[in-house]
Design brief:
With 333 residues, this protein is an alpha/beta fold. The chain folds into 2 domains: 246 residues, TIM Barrel; 73 residues, Four Helix Bundle (Hemerythrin (Met), subunit A). The chain has 17 helices and 9 strands. Strands 1-2-4-5-6-7-8-9 form an 8-stranded parallel beta barrel, surrounded by 6 helices. It is globular.
Length: 333
């Protein structure tokens, strides 16, 4: 990143790390709509980085910057080693997941369950920072299960910031590890934006970004005006990316970049390159189904891609047929 484009400012808006969604193809697509916002990888566990196929897990395009790697784990030594192995890939930030409520994460003693063990989190981030050459950040919840967020969250922030973390992304819901599914944990526990705002007032020296329930740029502006350092948006940025990301650079005073049709055209060369390397069309277009959300022809766009992109040998002819659906609809409107 250049000095005129500091990573820290990118957090005014970020796209949340989402399993099975924010892979490198998704991030390249999102980057065409915003030069400024911070993008995050899917969570990768520290053991996977250590023992798995590193290029497949950690590789990405330089065009994706600014981009952060999110790690999952609870063993300080493993996390330190994972950071060491990730260093050559040149991520702009390393983020520790202390928010995911899935059963698989709980059984591995990482994710949201770590809200109950702030000192272990502090030990983990301290080890990560020993190996990191970029900022180490934490994404967390306001609490879990029977914890009182009014006391649990400030205690967590106090202990983990004492270990050197100066940047937190707080999902403004509790996680109920017993009784709610991961999907329900994204929707049922009530949001408490006011608590996160109070944490920013209580920890003014710490960068605090808020996550949970945000769907548009007006809400982002409201949170920035309220004193928070940034907003992270997840599902809305994925399902209706144009409304969230096209125009987002205005948060930094920049003019909008490409429009939806220009984005669709710009993806063609990326898709062609992906196909030439043995990739499948569906691996890219599954992330693009919402590009024309709410616009004439959106249903046809989704239908053609959903029915045709996963077929054997599907190529740019399928993609062009889908684009024709929205082009004709726009001309007729």
């Amino acid at each position: 990143m250049s000095e005129s484009f500091p990573v820290q400012s990118a957090h005014r808006l970020s796209v949340a790390p989402m399993m099975d969604w924010t892979d490198r193809n998704c991030r390249f697509f999102h980057r065409l709509m915003t030069r400024r916002a911070m993008l995050y990888t899917e969570m990768v566990t520290a053991p996977a980085v250590i023992h798995g196929p590193k290029d497949r897990l950690l590789g990405y395009s330089d065009a994706e910057h600014p981009v952060a790697l999110q790690l999952g784990g609870s063993d300080p030594a493993e996390l330190r080693r994972a950071v060491e192995l990730a260093a050559p890939y040149g991520y702009d930030e390393i983020n520790l997941n202390v928010g995911c409520p899935s059963d698989r994460v709980q059984s591995g003693c990482f994710g949201a369950v770590l809200m109950e063990r702030p000192q272990l989190v502090a030990d983990c981030v301290a080890a990560m920072m020993e190996a990191a050459t970029v900022p180490v950040t934490v994404k967390c919840r306001i609490g879990v299960d029977e914890q009182d967020p009014e006391t649990a969250l400030p205690d967590f922030l106090t202990r983990v910031s004492a270990a050197g973390v100066t940047h937190f992304v707080i999902h403004a819901r509790k996680a109920w590890l017993k009784g709610l599914s991961p999907k329900e944990n994204r929707e049922i526990p009530p949001l408490d934006y006011d608590l996160v705002k109070r944490m920013k007032a209580e920890f003014p020296q710490v960068t605090i970004c808020i996550n949970g329930g945000f769907t548009g740029l007006d809400q982002v502006r409201d949170m920035l005006a309220a004193g928070l350092d940034g907003v992270m948006i997840g599902r809305a940025a994925y399902h209706d990316p144009a409304s969230v990301l096209i125009g987002a650079d205005g948060l930094w005073g920049d003019a909008p970049g490409l429009d939806v049709f220009e984005v669709a055209e710009a993806m063609k060369s990326y898709i062609a390159d992906h196909l030439s390397q043995g990739g499948r069309l569906h691996q890219i277009t599954r992330h693009m189904l919402g590009l024309f959300h709410g616009r004439p022809g959106a249903r046809g766009w989704r239908r053609v891609l959903s029915e045709g992109a996963s077929g054997p040998g599907a190529g740019l002819d399928v993609y062009n047929a889908a684009l024709t659906e929205v082009t004709r609809a726009a001309q007729a409107a």
